[in-house]
Design brief:
It is built from 16 helices and ten strands. By secondary structure, it is α+β, with helices and mostly antiparallel strands. It has two domains: about 200 residues, no CATH class; about 160 residues, no CATH class. A hairpin with a 4-residue loop joins strand 2 and strand 3. It is elongated and about 100 Å long.
Length: about 400
């Protein structure tokens, strides 16, 4: 085995320029794959965090069936004490209780159907970006006041401004008639026309009174600092609600199934482009090894005539490819890690990203995901395809005829 290794290493450097050209192609592709895949996974983390931080939180506590059929009566009893209990059991997270209903919003001139969310003003900023998106007036402060924060599109549609009154008409949890007159204290701009048109927030205490909720609510939103902390906090949350019948913990994949599908679709399209690069590198290896085998046909013929089995020659060629691929893998991963780590520290942004992020109250930089998986995924695929590419040149040696081979020049 040691002799085979020494022969493979010697043969690899018989043509240094050719070997380095092929290895450089591997190194370049590995660096590119490491950076692009790590940046892609980092952008997915950013996409997920931005989506979840905008309103839903990283996961929610809900009544069984509420996510599929959000009815007011599918509520959580004593929701605010439960939220307080969860804050004590999960001090690293941010927790806010909510209730939701649909109502008819009317001003002096117009009426529109909207979704009304009852929130805890003192905790809502921890699980939602809406408090930070208020462009006119201010966000809610009193948990029991008859106040409302609406979107900019809704404000234009209803023709109301700060200090104007809006009448809400709906149906209470017990089937009673729900009505209230609220003062507009803030107008937000989320950047989403749909949200700005049909989404309003009022204090949870007033919501419970208006919609005959008692001490009930519909969901508890929980936000963590990053996605890596979600998994252990999910376990803690399930333990916290274990004594409450009919409650579920829903993570972001259940709250936003469309987001997961979008990520999977983007990943599939990206791997199509990565595949083209990997195949080009594999063909480069195939060409190098095929040339190496053909130019040594005479040598192979001589040593075969001396009694060396073809499988020994095949293993020699495969070992040469393995060594060359390892060179490309090690150097490529190291250089790719340096690039990814640099941008993981300083962040990566493109022209116009800061303006867009400021508008939506979001982070203005992406940070590549520097993990073993993101670092090794692309290079290992390149490594595998390079080994597969060497199979054809190597297996040609099984058909080698010693007499014909020794005649080759």
């Amino acid at each position: 085995m040691i002799l085979t290794f020494r022969l493979a290493w010697r043969n690899l450097w018989r043509h240094k320029r050719r070997t380095w050209l092929t290895a450089t192609a591997m190194i370049f592709s590995n660096v590119l794959l490491v950076f692009m895949i790590s940046l892609q996974f980092g952008s997915y983390d950013m996409m997920i965090n931005n989506t979840l931080q905008s309103f839903s939180g990283h996961f929610q506590i809900q009544k069984n069936g509420y996510n599929d059929n959000p009815k007011l009566r599918l509520s959580i009893e004593s929701i605010q004490p439960l939220a307080t209990e969860m804050r004590r059991s999960m001090p690293q997270t941010r927790v806010a209780a909510r209730a939701a209903a649909f109502a008819l919003a009317s001003s002096e001139q117009r009426s529109f159907g909207i979704q009304v969310i009852g929130v805890q003003p003192e905790f809502e900023a921890g699980v939602s970006t809406i408090p930070g998106l208020v462009k006119q007036g201010s966000f809610l402060e009193d948990p029991n006041a008859a106040e409302i924060v609406i979107g900019a599109v809704m404000a234009r549609n209803l023709k109301v401004g700060i200090g104007d009154e809006i009448t809400l008409l709906g149906s209470g949890r017990d089937g009673s008639f729900a009505a209230g007159v609220l003062t507009v204290t803030g107008i937000y701009e989320s950047g989403s026309q749909e949200m700005d048109r049909s989404f309003a927030e009022i204090p949870l205490g007033y919501f419970q009174e208006m919609f005959a909720m008692g001490d009930h609510g519909n969901s508890i939103a929980v936000a963590a600092d990053n996605l890596d902390e979600v998994a252990p906090e999910l376990i803690t949350a399930k333990q916290a609600i274990s004594g409450h019948n009919g409650l579920l913990v829903l993570d972001w994949t259940e709250l936003h199934p469309g987001l997961k599908q979008a990520i999977q679709a983007d990943l599939s399209s990206a791997w199509f482009m990565y595949g083209v690069l990997i195949i080009l590198v594999a063909f480069s290896v195939l060409n190098t090894q095929l040339m190496s085998v053909l130019e040594r046909t005479h040598e192979f013929g001589v040593i075969t005539a001396l009694g060396i089995k073809p499988r020994k020659l095949v293993s020699l060629v495969m070992l040469e490819t393995l060594l060359m691929s390892l060179i490309g893998l090690i150097i490529g991963v190291f250089l790719g890690w340096l690039v990814a780590y640099y941008f993981n520290v300083v962040g990566f942004s493109y022209p116009g990203m800061e303006e867009v992020a400021a508008r939506f109250n979001l982070s203005d930089k992406m940070y590549p995901s520097v993990t073993v998986f993101s670092m090794m995924l692309g290079p290992l695929v390149v490594f595998l395809f390079c080994l597969l590419a060497s199979i054809y040149p190597a297996t040609r040696l099984y058909r080698l005829q010693p007499v014909d081979a020794m005649r080759a020049v």
